[in-house]
Amino acid sequence: MASRRRLASSVSLAEGSACEMDSTLPAVAEELLKEIRKAFQETSHVPDDLLLGLKFIFGPSAVPALDLVDRRSVTRVVSPSGRTAFQVLGSSGKLYTCYSSCHFCTCPAFGFTVLQKSESLLCKHILAVYLSQAMGACQELAVSEEQLTSILLAEEEEEG
């Protein structure tokens, strides 16, 4: 909560800046997440400069993603074989499945703003997955192979 408030109060400083996005942005995003992980491990909080970087790189997804992390809405679902997916309880109360290995989320915002319009790198749900892992706020759920398959197929059925 404190991280989200500090970000919201200091965002106006970064919003006036403009910078062209280039091909190094994904590497920059990964580096920022590594720095957030390191800072959080050392101090149990995320410094303002990294919060500003988060807002600058991920734009309007940053604050809602931090809110999802604060509410511990991210669950890592793991099967005995090691297959992993993430489930994020969205602010609307709907459960979305995210795949961090391929940066994909089942939410409509991902399909529209990330895939169709290319306006954002990630939706708030995937960003919340990465942040919750970096901040140690990810819940864990061990499931059978059959249960994981059901989770994945349930998403397909909703889309079809």
TrEMBL record:
Keyword Secreted: no
GO annotation, biological process: double-strand break repair via homologous recombination
Coiled coil: none
A single MF term (Gene Ontology): zinc ion binding
GO cellular component, one term: Shu complex
Record keyword Zinc present: yes
SWIM-type domain boundaries: 96-134
InterPro entries listed in its UniProt record: Znf_SWIM (IPR007527)
Secretion signal, residue range per the UniProt entry: none
Keywords: Metal-binding, Zinc, Zinc-finger
Protein name as catalogued: SWIM-type domain-containing protein
Organism: Callipepla squamata
